[in-house]
Amino acid sequence: MNNNFPLLPDQASTFAKQVDDIALVITLLTVFFTVAVMGMLVFLAIRYRRGSNVNRESSGSHNIYLEIGWTLPPLVLGLGMFAWSVKPYAEVFNPPPDAEEIFVIGKRWMWHMQHTVNGIRENNELHIPMGRPFKLTLISQDVIHGFYVPDFRMKRDAMPGQFNTVWFEATKPGKHHLFCTEYCGTDHSQMGGWVYVLSPQDYNLWVKSNGTSTQPVESPVQAGFDLYTQLACANCHKEQDSLRAPTLYNLPGRYRNLQNGTTVIADDNYIRKAIRVPDENVLQGYSPTMPSYKDNLDEQQIHDLIMYIKSLGNGSPPPVKAKVGSIGGAGGTLRQPGNAAKLDTVLGSASSSANTPAPNSPTPTSGSPAPTGSLPAESPSGVRTPAGGSSKQ
Ligand code: CUA
């Protein structure tokens, strides 16, 4: 429909077009018969007005063809409309079995919804993905309310003491008005909101964020990795010390001998300063070639970078160098945060032989994801046994 002159609301559900087609045909038929009957009435009123010179003899008592003519076509048309409408009508009230349920409570004067699959609750808002059927189970806590989304051509009353159901499948992403269509008291006109139809991807993000956002939920480590890539830090900072720059792998907690003669521990504050004013924090044996990021990174971004650098391991140098290299790949490729657990497993299991941590102790690498997967199995007696077959030592 033309946006400047919208005769009908958006067609945003699978029912919308069917309903509109039926409504259009009923309207056209109604207009046709109204014009025909009213036209005839006006014509005859003028023709047989008082004093007109026309034949006023009475006609025959009946005309079988005329009577069939005005009975049969309207009957066929009426039954035809009924047959055509009954299918979508029955459909609307019979949700497909795979429809996901949303529980809707109407109360003066708001709509409260709960997604039964993910448990997310919403007030006067409903977020759903397009292209998937949803079944609404409606009830009212007080008086009768009407759940109506014009863009979906979907309306169902929420009754006190009785569950009603209806379903729909949205076809158009965007924001669609929700109304209450039973006069339910003082703020009836305020009782409404919006249905947000999201793309399946956005809906997944929305569910992941527990209904708070459609923005990707990014961990600081992931955000730091993105920045690290974007700023091309890896051009100089590789997995091993290079001629241009020291490696950042296993940096946190290590002693650093600086060119100004001091020795510092590479803690969060040191890393932050080294990113912001590298010239004052150059390691012995290197030249001050790194640009300052004082002006183009905010504190959040610097913190993200620190979190990523920490995920590359802490203080102790990697004991199994070949393994570390093979995870990062040749040519100084970046290690994805997703692989961090893998490296930690190598580090964790290697160091555990020298320095067995107490059972259930926190992982030795603070600030990085807990190792998962192929950690050597721990028997009930607390004795570590090598992981079968695939031992990497
Ligand atoms: Cu609820 Cu009107």
What's the structural blueprint in terms of helices and strands?
Layout: H1 16-47, H2 64-92, E1 100-107, E2 110-115, E3 121-123, E4 125-129, E5 133-140, E6 145-149, E7 154-158, E8 164-169, E9 174-180, E10 192-198, H3 200-208, H4 220-230, E11 255-257, E12 263-265, H5 268-276, H6 299-311, H7 321-328, H8 340-354
Parallel strand pairs: 1-5, 4-10
Antiparallel strand pairs: 1-2, 2-3, 5-8, 6-7, 6-9, 9-10, 11-12
The chain binds dinuclear copper ion (CUA).
Dinuclear copper ion is lined by residues 106, 109, 145, 180, 182-184, 188, 191.
Describe what this molecule looks like in 3D.
With 393 residues, the protein is of the alpha+beta class. The chain contains eight helices and twelve strands. The protein has helices at 16-47, 64-92, 200-208, 220-230, 268-276, 299-311, 321-328, 340-354; strands at 100-107, 110-115, 121-123, 125-129, 133-140, 145-149, 154-158, 164-169, 174-180, 192-198, 255-257, 263-265. Strands 3-2-1-5-8 form a five-stranded mixed sheet, with no helix packed on it. Helix 1 (16-47) packs antiparallel against helix 2. The longest helix is centred in the N-terminal third of the chain and has 32 residues, at 16-47. Mean pLDDT is 78; it is low at 317-335 and 338-393. The protein binds dinuclear copper ion. Dinuclear copper ion is lined by residues 106, 109, 145, 180, 182-184, 188, 191. Dinuclear copper ion (CUA) binds next to loops.
How is this structure best summarized?
This protein is of the alpha+beta class.
Bound molecules: dinuclear copper ion
Biggest sheet layout: 5 strands, mixed
Helix content: 25-40%
Which whole number gives the mean pLDDT?
A: 78
Estimated radius of gyration: 37 Å
Shape: elongated
Order of helix and strand elements from N to C terminus: HHEEEEEEEEEEHHEEHHHH
SS-based structural class? Answer: alpha+beta
Number of DSSP helices?
A: 8
Number of strands: 12
Distance between the termini: 69 Å
Strand order, largest beta sheet: 3-2-1-5-8
Unreliable sequence segments:
317-335, 338-393
Strand content: 15-25%
